[in-house]
Amino acid sequence: MMMMLNIFICILVGISWNLRNGKSVQKIHIPFKRFWCQRVLSKSFWNREQQRLDFIYNPIISSELSGDPGIKLPDWLNDTRPLDPCEPDHRVTTQIVDYNSLPERFQDFLLHMRCRNYTMLINQPNLCDDQPFLLLAVKSLIPHFDRRQAIRESWGRAGVLANRTVVTVFLLGNTFSGDHFPDLLQMVGHEAVLHQDLLQWDYRDTFFNLTLKEVLFLEWFSKHCPQAQYVLKGDDDVFVNTLRIIDYLEGLSEVKARDLFMGDVISNAAPHRDPKLKYFIPESVFVGQYPAYAGGGGYLYSGDLALRLYYISHQVVLYPIDDVYTGMCLKKLGLTPEKHTGFKTFDIEEKYRHSSCIYRNLMLVHSRTPQDILKIWQWIVHPEPDCQ
């Protein structure tokens, strides 16, 4: 990056000098092949794939390529990847040295990490016809009927709340026989007809595919709900104080609202290298620090930013941890998530968990059972008289 910046500065200096001396400015050719042959490729698969996208989407290089189709791409861009991004990418089995020792679902993610095109099984194309002030997008799994119903009867109640239109949608993937889930598709179909708040895609719904759920939702949002002013995205085991969130959003300036991305922010984090941990990432897949990111239990952002996140996501290789991936996309946009103490994705102190008053000033708490969610919501809508 520093070498590229220096070249760009030299070009600007040269143009400025020519203008001052009355010389005409001719087209300047970037030393394309010579410059990019000096690229040092990462030994880690994800980083190497990202280097490729960074090259393709670099505005200077893209301009040069479009202006001179005869330019030959650098050798390091040539590979044997399938032309169809949704075909299994078997390169990973040889390019990731410890591939065979990774968990099966991690292997599945790596084989299909280039695919973002999955059939939509259940859609709600008219869900946002009333132009919602707040869209509540909840990540859920097919068997979690009780969680979804508790949310519908509490913080995710769709309609007019505090004089603002609120819409709720649940995001689902699919189950496969190899994952040992019962066949519940008929029940889900009935639920979708009854409540008209489910979105489902035909991909394997696993922890490592939560990133896929993220980008598929953003695509759906760009097509069917771009007029929503704000989005609260969270898990189906969180409690959300919707009234508190609406009150906060109404006080935002137009400038701050545009780039709003708020949650329980984690900074200076790095990949876990212990294979026993849920968030394990081997060095053969990724090296480096994580950008600042908001914990995936729940975060709040503007509809305007949701659209920008969708478009920039095409320039960021899918990563198997969804909240880290969203942080990567924000960084690509030049933004940093804002930390708010009202988001408690790692819960609150145990001594406060059964205090009705404590939840009035919180925005989101993780995690709670369906029974807890229903009880806490009653505390919110019918607060104790002595709660300040």
UniProtKB/TrEMBL annotation:
Compartment(s) of residence: Golgi apparatus membrane
Record-level Gene Ontology MF annotations: N-acetyllactosaminide beta-1,3-N-acetylglucosaminyltransferase activity
Reactions performed catalytically: a beta-D-galactosyl-(1->4)-N-acetyl-beta-D-glucosaminyl derivative + UDP-N-acetyl-alpha-D-glucosamine = an N-acetyl-beta-D-glucosaminyl-(1->3)-beta-D-galactosyl-(1->4)-N-acetyl-beta-D-glucosaminyl derivative + UDP + H(+)
Pathway(s): Protein modification; protein glycosylation
Keywords recorded for this protein, A-Z: Glycoprotein, Glycosyltransferase, Golgi apparatus, Manganese, Membrane, Signal, Signal-anchor, Transferase, Transmembrane, Transmembrane helix
Enzyme Commission number, as recorded: 2.4.1.-
BP term (GO), one: poly-N-acetyllactosamine biosynthetic process
Cofactor: Mn(2+)
UniProt xrefs under InterPro entries: Glyco_trans_31
Signal peptide annotation: 1-22
Gene3D superfamilies, sorted: 3.90.550.50
Annotated membrane topology: Single-pass type II membrane protein
A Pfam match: Galactosyl_T
Subunit structure: Interacts with B3GNT8; this interaction greatly increases B3GNT2 catalytic activity, independently of B3GNT8 enzymatic activity.
Family: Belongs to the glycosyltransferase 31 family.
Protein name (record): Hexosyltransferase
Source organism of this protein record: Channa argus (Northern snakehead)
Taxonomic lineage of the native organism: Eukaryota, Metazoa, Chordata, Craniata, Vertebrata
